[in-house]
Amino acid sequence: MAMVLDTGASAVVLTHEAAKAAGLPLDFIKYNVNVDTANGRAQAAAVTLDRITVGGIVERSVPALIAPPGQLKVSLLGMSFLDRLESWEVRGGKLMMRPN
């Protein structure tokens, strides 16, 4: 699944389509979390992802949000993942991450 690094996003945010592809039980989620976006206020559904793997880095039990259908074009790799790392930086157009 493609994701965009978004340090302005407090959480990992999945598109509805990415959440469906990941096998999340979308029939049971509720879009009841208010979020402020660059396009204004919206709602999302809170979930905890079993794991996120980026390269060789695996983080488990990652808090995330699911955007309603049509609200987001690409999933966001936000701070609920990045804050778990020992360090990360963008260098030469590449994201360099160091796990804990």
Automatic annotation (TrEMBL):
Lineage of origin: Bacteria, Pseudomonadati, Pseudomonadota, Alphaproteobacteria, Hyphomicrobiales
Origin species: Rhodoplanes roseus
InterPro entries: Clan_AA_Asp_peptidase_C (IPR011969), Peptidase_aspartic_dom_sf (IPR021109), Retropepsin-like_bacterial (IPR034122)
Pfam families: gag-asp_proteas (PF13975)
Protein name: TIGR02281 family clan AA aspartic protease
Superkingdom of source: Bacteria
